[in-house]
Amino acid sequence: MNVRRSAAALAAVGVLAAAAPATAADPSPSPKVTVPSGLYGKSDPTYDGVWRQSLTLVAQRTLGYRPAAAAVDWLTGQQCANGSFAAFRAAPAAPCDDKVKADTNSTAAAVQALAATGGHGGAVEKAVDWLKSVQNKDGGWSYYPGGPSDTNSTSVVIGALAAAGTDPADVRKSGKSPYDALPAWSIPCDQDGGGALVYQPDKKGKLLANADATAAGLLGALGKGFVAEAGKAPAQDACAESEHLTRAQVADNAGAYLGTAVAKSGHLLSTLPGAKDQPDYGNTADAVVALAADGRTEPARKAYAWLEKNAGPWATQSGPAAYAQLILAAHAIGEQPGDFDGTSLVSSLNALGPAPRMDSAAHEPAAEEEDSKSGVWWIVGVGLVAGIGIGFLLSGRKRRP
Protein backbone atom coordinates (compact mmCIF):
# COMPACT_ATOMS: atom_id res chain seq x y z
CA MET A 1 0.00 0.00 0.00
CA ASN A 2 1.27 3.41 -0.81
CA VAL A 3 -0.60 6.46 0.30
CA ARG A 4 -2.27 6.55 3.54
CA ARG A 5 -5.67 5.46 4.34
CA SER A 6 -7.66 5.42 1.22
CA ALA A 7 -9.56 2.92 3.21
CA ALA A 8 -12.19 2.29 0.63
CA ALA A 9 -9.72 0.00 -1.02
CA LEU A 10 -9.06 -1.69 2.26
CA ALA A 11 -12.64 -2.00 3.14
CA ALA A 12 -13.17 -3.68 -0.18
CA VAL A 13 -10.49 -6.31 0.37
CA GLY A 14 -10.89 -6.58 4.11
CA VAL A 15 -7.33 -5.59 4.96
CA LEU A 16 -5.77 -2.77 6.74
CA ALA A 17 -5.37 0.45 5.36
CA ALA A 18 -3.01 4.72 6.29
CA ALA A 19 -4.03 5.44 7.85
CA ALA A 20 -5.10 2.92 4.73
CA PRO A 21 -5.14 3.18 1.12
CA ALA A 22 -5.07 2.64 -2.47
CA THR A 23 -2.25 1.97 -4.81
CA ALA A 24 -0.56 4.78 -6.66
CA ALA A 25 -1.92 5.65 -10.04
CA ASP A 26 -0.27 6.78 -13.24
CA PRO A 27 0.87 10.40 -12.94
CA SER A 28 -1.41 11.48 -15.76
CA PRO A 29 -4.31 9.04 -15.98
CA SER A 30 -7.55 9.69 -17.76
CA PRO A 31 -10.02 10.33 -14.93
CA LYS A 32 -13.33 8.54 -15.08
CA VAL A 33 -14.94 11.73 -13.85
CA THR A 34 -14.13 15.35 -14.49
CA VAL A 35 -11.64 16.68 -11.95
CA PRO A 36 -13.31 19.74 -10.44
CA SER A 37 -11.72 23.13 -10.14
CA GLY A 38 -10.35 23.68 -6.64
CA LEU A 39 -9.41 20.04 -6.09
CA TYR A 40 -5.74 19.15 -5.79
CA GLY A 41 -4.44 16.52 -8.19
CA LYS A 42 -5.57 15.56 -11.67
CA SER A 43 -6.31 11.88 -11.16
CA ASP A 44 -9.75 10.35 -10.73
CA PRO A 45 -11.03 11.57 -7.34
CA THR A 46 -13.76 8.96 -6.99
CA TYR A 47 -12.10 7.11 -4.14
CA ASP A 48 -9.88 9.71 -2.55
CA GLY A 49 -11.01 13.25 -3.41
CA VAL A 50 -11.90 14.38 0.11
CA TRP A 51 -8.99 12.50 1.66
CA ARG A 52 -6.29 14.00 -0.55
CA GLN A 53 -7.78 17.47 -0.33
CA SER A 54 -7.94 17.29 3.45
CA LEU A 55 -4.33 16.14 3.80
CA THR A 56 -3.25 18.91 1.44
CA LEU A 57 -4.99 21.64 3.44
CA VAL A 58 -3.63 20.29 6.72
CA ALA A 59 -0.09 20.20 5.32
CA GLN A 60 -0.38 23.74 3.97
CA ARG A 61 -1.59 25.11 7.29
CA THR A 62 1.17 23.25 9.11
CA LEU A 63 3.67 25.08 6.90
CA GLY A 64 2.07 28.45 7.58
CA TYR A 65 0.20 28.79 4.29
CA ARG A 66 -3.35 30.04 3.98
CA PRO A 67 -5.06 27.62 1.56
CA ALA A 68 -6.79 29.10 -1.47
CA ALA A 69 -10.46 29.86 -0.96
CA ALA A 70 -11.32 27.70 -3.97
CA ALA A 71 -9.65 24.69 -2.36
CA VAL A 72 -11.45 25.13 0.96
CA ASP A 73 -14.76 25.82 -0.77
CA TRP A 74 -14.40 22.61 -2.75
CA LEU A 75 -14.02 20.65 0.46
CA THR A 76 -16.91 22.31 2.30
CA GLY A 77 -19.06 21.77 -0.78
CA GLN A 78 -18.60 18.01 -0.43
CA GLN A 79 -20.37 17.87 2.94
CA CYS A 80 -23.78 16.25 3.15
CA ALA A 81 -26.64 17.94 5.00
CA ASN A 82 -26.25 15.50 7.92
CA GLY A 83 -22.62 16.54 8.37
CA SER A 84 -20.95 13.52 6.81
CA PHE A 85 -18.54 13.33 3.88
CA ALA A 86 -18.15 10.66 1.23
CA ALA A 87 -14.89 9.98 -0.59
CA PHE A 88 -16.14 12.13 -3.48
CA ARG A 89 -19.41 13.57 -4.71
CA ALA A 90 -19.39 14.40 -8.41
CA ALA A 91 -22.61 16.40 -8.06
CA PRO A 92 -22.27 18.22 -4.72
CA ALA A 93 -25.28 20.43 -5.44
CA ALA A 94 -27.53 17.36 -5.36
CA PRO A 95 -28.77 16.21 -1.95
CA CYS A 96 -27.13 13.15 -0.45
CA ASP A 97 -29.23 10.02 -0.79
CA ASP A 98 -28.85 6.31 -0.13
CA LYS A 99 -26.41 6.03 -3.04
CA VAL A 100 -23.94 8.37 -1.35
CA LYS A 101 -21.58 6.22 0.71
CA ALA A 102 -20.56 8.50 3.55
CA ASP A 103 -17.62 7.17 5.53
CA THR A 104 -15.88 7.96 8.80
CA ASN A 105 -12.40 8.35 7.31
CA SER A 106 -13.34 11.02 4.77
CA THR A 107 -15.44 12.81 7.38
CA ALA A 108 -12.72 12.73 10.03
CA ALA A 109 -10.08 13.91 7.56
CA ALA A 110 -12.30 16.80 6.50
CA VAL A 111 -12.84 17.78 10.14
CA GLN A 112 -9.10 18.00 10.69
CA ALA A 113 -8.66 20.09 7.55
CA LEU A 114 -11.52 22.50 8.24
CA ALA A 115 -10.50 22.89 11.87
CA ALA A 116 -6.99 23.77 10.67
CA THR A 117 -8.15 26.32 8.11
CA GLY A 118 -10.52 28.00 10.59
CA GLY A 119 -13.77 29.81 9.97
CA HIS A 120 -15.88 26.69 9.46
CA GLY A 121 -17.06 25.91 12.96
CA GLY A 122 -20.56 25.01 11.85
CA ALA A 123 -19.36 22.46 9.31
CA VAL A 124 -16.95 20.96 11.82
CA GLU A 125 -19.63 20.69 14.51
CA LYS A 126 -22.06 18.95 12.15
CA ALA A 127 -19.39 16.50 11.02
CA VAL A 128 -18.42 15.70 14.61
CA ASP A 129 -22.07 15.16 15.51
CA TRP A 130 -22.40 12.70 12.65
CA LEU A 131 -19.27 10.85 13.74
CA LYS A 132 -20.67 10.57 17.26
CA SER A 133 -23.92 9.20 15.87
CA VAL A 134 -22.19 6.28 14.12
CA GLN A 135 -19.88 5.25 16.97
CA ASN A 136 -19.97 1.52 17.73
CA LYS A 137 -20.76 -0.02 21.10
CA ASP A 138 -17.11 -0.96 21.66
CA GLY A 139 -16.25 2.75 21.52
CA GLY A 140 -14.65 2.57 18.08
CA TRP A 141 -15.61 3.26 14.48
CA SER A 142 -15.72 1.32 11.24
CA TYR A 143 -14.93 2.75 7.82
CA TYR A 144 -18.59 2.59 6.78
CA PRO A 145 -21.19 2.93 9.55
CA GLY A 146 -22.58 -0.38 10.69
CA GLY A 147 -19.43 -2.42 10.20
CA PRO A 148 -17.08 -3.72 12.89
CA SER A 149 -14.69 -1.18 14.37
CA ASP A 150 -11.12 -1.03 13.13
CA THR A 151 -7.94 0.61 14.39
CA ASN A 152 -7.43 2.96 11.44
CA SER A 153 -10.94 4.39 11.40
CA THR A 154 -11.08 4.72 15.17
CA SER A 155 -7.75 6.52 15.20
CA VAL A 156 -8.54 9.01 12.45
CA VAL A 157 -11.79 9.85 14.26
CA ILE A 158 -9.84 10.40 17.47
CA GLY A 159 -7.70 12.88 15.54
CA ALA A 160 -10.80 14.64 14.27
CA LEU A 161 -12.35 14.91 17.73
CA ALA A 162 -9.13 16.33 19.14
CA ALA A 163 -8.82 18.82 16.27
CA ALA A 164 -12.39 19.96 16.91
CA GLY A 165 -11.67 20.57 20.60
CA THR A 166 -13.55 17.51 21.85
CA ASP A 167 -11.89 15.12 24.29
CA PRO A 168 -12.17 11.64 22.71
CA ALA A 169 -12.39 10.16 26.21
CA ASP A 170 -15.74 11.91 26.62
CA VAL A 171 -17.23 10.47 23.41
CA ARG A 172 -18.87 7.25 24.51
CA LYS A 173 -21.26 4.60 23.28
CA SER A 174 -22.57 2.05 25.75
CA GLY A 175 -20.18 3.56 28.27
CA LYS A 176 -17.07 3.00 26.14
CA SER A 177 -14.78 5.55 24.50
CA PRO A 178 -12.35 4.97 21.61
CA TYR A 179 -9.59 4.66 24.18
CA ASP A 180 -11.38 1.56 25.48
CA ALA A 181 -11.40 0.04 22.00
CA LEU A 182 -7.72 0.39 21.10
CA PRO A 183 -6.24 -2.02 23.71
CA ALA A 184 -8.29 -4.89 22.25
CA TRP A 185 -6.37 -4.50 18.98
CA SER A 186 -2.92 -4.45 20.60
CA ILE A 187 -1.03 -7.73 20.25
CA PRO A 188 0.32 -9.12 23.55
CA CYS A 189 4.08 -8.82 23.91
CA ASP A 190 4.67 -12.60 24.06
CA GLN A 191 2.95 -13.23 20.72
CA ASP A 192 4.20 -12.83 17.16
CA GLY A 193 4.17 -9.13 16.37
CA GLY A 194 3.93 -8.22 20.04
CA GLY A 195 3.19 -4.54 20.61
CA ALA A 196 1.76 -3.98 17.15
CA LEU A 197 -1.88 -3.24 16.49
CA VAL A 198 -4.13 -5.00 14.03
CA TYR A 199 -6.48 -3.44 11.52
CA GLN A 200 -9.20 -5.81 12.74
CA PRO A 201 -9.08 -9.31 14.21
CA ASP A 202 -9.51 -11.91 11.47
CA LYS A 203 -12.62 -14.05 11.22
CA LYS A 204 -11.29 -16.40 13.87
CA GLY A 205 -10.37 -13.55 16.18
CA LYS A 206 -6.65 -13.87 15.51
CA LEU A 207 -4.54 -10.72 15.84
CA LEU A 208 -2.18 -10.15 12.90
CA ALA A 209 0.33 -7.32 13.14
CA ASN A 210 -0.27 -4.48 10.73
CA ALA A 211 2.29 -1.69 10.51
CA ASP A 212 -0.15 0.80 9.02
CA ALA A 213 -2.70 0.17 11.74
CA THR A 214 0.10 0.31 14.30
CA ALA A 215 1.16 3.80 13.23
CA ALA A 216 -2.44 4.96 13.16
CA GLY A 217 -3.23 3.36 16.50
CA LEU A 218 -0.16 4.84 18.15
CA LEU A 219 -1.28 8.35 17.19
CA GLY A 220 -4.82 7.53 18.23
CA ALA A 221 -3.71 6.30 21.65
CA LEU A 222 -1.82 9.58 22.10
CA GLY A 223 -4.91 11.56 21.08
CA LYS A 224 -3.12 12.91 18.00
CA GLY A 225 -4.29 13.54 14.46
CA PHE A 226 -2.37 14.05 11.22
CA VAL A 227 -0.09 16.68 12.74
CA ALA A 228 2.30 15.75 15.53
CA GLU A 229 5.64 16.86 16.91
CA ALA A 230 8.37 15.05 18.81
CA GLY A 231 7.08 13.89 22.18
CA LYS A 232 8.77 12.85 25.40
CA ALA A 233 10.88 9.72 25.15
CA PRO A 234 9.08 6.63 26.49
CA ALA A 235 10.08 5.21 29.85
CA GLN A 236 11.21 1.96 28.21
CA ASP A 237 12.03 0.85 24.69
CA ALA A 238 10.65 -2.68 24.89
CA CYS A 239 7.07 -3.94 24.76
CA ALA A 240 5.47 -3.79 28.21
CA GLU A 241 3.15 -6.61 29.24
CA SER A 242 -0.03 -5.75 31.11
CA GLU A 243 -3.39 -7.40 31.61
CA HIS A 244 -5.14 -4.08 31.18
CA LEU A 245 -3.22 -1.79 28.87
CA THR A 246 -3.49 1.94 29.34
CA ARG A 247 -3.52 4.37 26.42
CA ALA A 248 0.11 5.22 27.07
CA GLN A 249 1.10 1.53 27.10
CA VAL A 250 -0.72 0.90 23.82
CA ALA A 251 1.20 3.80 22.27
CA ASP A 252 4.59 2.84 23.71
CA ASN A 253 4.22 -0.82 22.74
CA ALA A 254 3.27 0.24 19.23
CA GLY A 255 6.26 2.56 19.12
CA ALA A 256 8.59 -0.25 20.21
CA TYR A 257 7.23 -2.43 17.40
CA LEU A 258 7.59 0.29 14.75
CA GLY A 259 11.05 1.21 15.94
CA THR A 260 12.18 -2.39 15.52
CA ALA A 261 10.43 -2.66 12.15
CA VAL A 262 12.41 0.21 10.63
CA ALA A 263 15.67 -0.47 12.48
CA LYS A 264 17.41 -2.44 9.73
CA SER A 265 16.13 -1.09 6.43
CA GLY A 266 14.70 2.28 7.48
CA HIS A 267 11.33 1.49 5.93
CA LEU A 268 8.22 -0.62 6.24
CA LEU A 269 7.02 -3.20 3.73
CA SER A 270 3.68 -3.36 1.96
CA THR A 271 1.20 -5.94 3.16
CA LEU A 272 -1.22 -6.31 0.26
CA PRO A 273 -2.37 -9.94 0.03
CA GLY A 274 -0.86 -11.76 -2.92
CA ALA A 275 1.59 -8.99 -3.74
CA LYS A 276 5.36 -9.20 -3.51
CA ASP A 277 6.77 -7.38 -0.51
CA GLN A 278 8.09 -3.97 -1.45
CA PRO A 279 8.89 -0.72 0.36
CA ASP A 280 5.77 1.03 1.60
CA TYR A 281 6.48 4.73 1.31
CA GLY A 282 3.18 6.01 2.66
CA ASN A 283 3.17 3.82 5.74
CA THR A 284 6.80 4.64 6.37
CA ALA A 285 5.94 8.35 6.33
CA ASP A 286 3.12 7.70 8.77
CA ALA A 287 5.52 5.73 10.96
CA VAL A 288 7.87 8.73 11.11
CA VAL A 289 5.06 10.87 12.51
CA ALA A 290 3.98 8.17 14.97
CA LEU A 291 7.49 7.40 16.18
CA ALA A 292 8.26 11.07 16.67
CA ALA A 293 5.04 11.61 18.59
CA ASP A 294 6.02 8.75 20.91
CA GLY A 295 9.43 10.32 21.51
CA ARG A 296 11.35 7.77 19.44
CA THR A 297 13.25 10.31 17.40
CA GLU A 298 16.19 8.11 16.42
CA PRO A 299 14.19 5.53 14.42
CA ALA A 300 11.95 8.33 13.15
CA ARG A 301 14.95 10.16 11.72
CA LYS A 302 16.33 6.97 10.21
CA ALA A 303 13.04 6.32 8.43
CA TYR A 304 12.84 9.92 7.23
CA ALA A 305 16.39 9.73 5.88
CA TRP A 306 15.39 6.65 3.90
CA LEU A 307 12.33 8.45 2.55
CA GLU A 308 14.44 11.42 1.53
CA LYS A 309 16.67 9.17 -0.56
CA ASN A 310 13.95 6.99 -2.05
CA ALA A 311 10.44 8.48 -1.90
CA GLY A 312 10.71 11.27 -4.46
CA PRO A 313 9.51 9.23 -7.48
CA TRP A 314 6.69 7.74 -5.41
CA ALA A 315 5.46 11.17 -4.41
CA THR A 316 5.67 12.44 -7.99
CA GLN A 317 3.59 9.52 -9.17
CA SER A 318 1.15 9.46 -6.30
CA GLY A 319 0.33 13.15 -5.97
CA PRO A 320 -1.10 15.45 -3.30
CA ALA A 321 -1.64 13.05 -0.41
CA ALA A 322 1.86 11.61 -0.78
CA TYR A 323 3.47 15.05 -0.72
CA ALA A 324 1.34 15.96 2.29
CA GLN A 325 2.39 12.81 4.16
CA LEU A 326 6.05 13.58 3.56
CA ILE A 327 5.58 17.18 4.67
CA LEU A 328 3.91 16.04 7.89
CA ALA A 329 6.74 13.56 8.46
CA ALA A 330 9.28 16.36 8.03
CA HIS A 331 7.34 18.56 10.41
CA ALA A 332 7.20 15.83 13.07
CA ILE A 333 11.01 15.64 13.34
CA GLY A 334 11.80 19.27 12.59
CA GLU A 335 13.19 18.79 9.08
CA GLN A 336 12.75 21.30 6.25
CA PRO A 337 10.31 20.07 3.58
CA GLY A 338 11.61 22.79 1.26
CA ASP A 339 14.76 20.71 0.81
CA PHE A 340 13.88 17.06 0.34
CA ASP A 341 17.00 15.61 -1.24
CA GLY A 342 17.31 18.74 -3.36
CA THR A 343 13.65 19.19 -4.23
CA SER A 344 10.85 21.06 -2.49
CA LEU A 345 7.89 19.07 -1.21
CA VAL A 346 6.19 22.40 -0.63
CA SER A 347 6.38 23.70 -4.18
CA SER A 348 5.55 20.25 -5.54
CA LEU A 349 2.36 20.07 -3.47
CA ASN A 350 1.27 23.65 -4.04
CA ALA A 351 1.70 23.24 -7.80
CA LEU A 352 -1.04 20.60 -7.92
CA GLY A 353 -3.95 22.95 -7.28
CA PRO A 354 -4.93 26.55 -6.54
CA ALA A 355 -2.03 28.50 -5.10
CA PRO A 356 -2.13 29.21 -1.35
CA ARG A 357 -0.63 32.32 0.13
CA MET A 358 1.90 32.58 2.90
CA ASP A 359 0.46 33.67 6.21
CA SER A 360 3.31 36.15 6.71
CA ALA A 361 2.40 36.96 10.29
CA ALA A 362 2.86 33.34 11.28
CA HIS A 363 6.46 33.30 10.12
CA GLU A 364 7.63 36.85 10.50
CA PRO A 365 10.44 35.91 12.95
CA ALA A 366 11.80 33.27 10.58
CA ALA A 367 12.11 35.82 7.80
CA GLU A 368 14.58 37.78 9.93
CA GLU A 369 16.94 34.82 10.29
CA GLU A 370 18.30 35.03 6.78
CA ASP A 371 21.55 33.32 7.72
CA SER A 372 19.85 30.29 9.18
CA LYS A 373 18.60 27.28 7.31
CA SER A 374 15.01 27.90 8.35
CA GLY A 375 15.23 31.55 7.38
CA VAL A 376 16.43 30.66 3.90
CA TRP A 377 13.63 28.16 3.59
CA TRP A 378 10.88 30.65 4.38
CA ILE A 379 12.33 33.13 1.92
CA VAL A 380 12.20 30.41 -0.72
CA GLY A 381 8.64 29.63 0.34
CA VAL A 382 7.52 33.24 -0.03
CA GLY A 383 9.18 33.42 -3.43
CA LEU A 384 7.36 30.28 -4.42
CA VAL A 385 3.99 31.77 -3.56
CA ALA A 386 4.77 34.80 -5.69
CA GLY A 387 5.64 32.62 -8.64
CA ILE A 388 2.94 30.03 -8.35
CA GLY A 389 -0.04 31.75 -9.91
CA ILE A 390 0.37 30.89 -13.54
CA GLY A 391 -0.98 27.80 -15.20
CA PHE A 392 -0.56 25.13 -12.60
CA LEU A 393 -2.29 21.92 -13.61
CA LEU A 394 -4.47 19.97 -11.24
CA SER A 395 -2.31 16.93 -10.99
CA GLY A 396 -1.18 13.70 -9.81
CA ARG A 397 -2.90 11.13 -7.91
CA LYS A 398 -1.96 9.56 -4.93
CA ARG A 399 -2.60 7.10 -3.09
CA ARG A 400 -3.19 4.53 -1.50
CA PRO A 401 -4.77 8.47 2.77
From TrEMBL:
Keyword terms of this UniProt record: Membrane, Signal, Transmembrane, Transmembrane helix
Residues in the signal sequence: 1-24
Entry-linked Gene3D superfamilies: 1.50.10.20
Top-rank lineage group of the source organism: Bacteria
SUPFAM superfamilies: Terpenoid cyclases/Protein prenyltransferases (SSF48239)
Transmembrane regions listed in the UniProt entry: 375-394
Record's protein name: Prenyltransferase/squalene oxidase repeat-containing protein
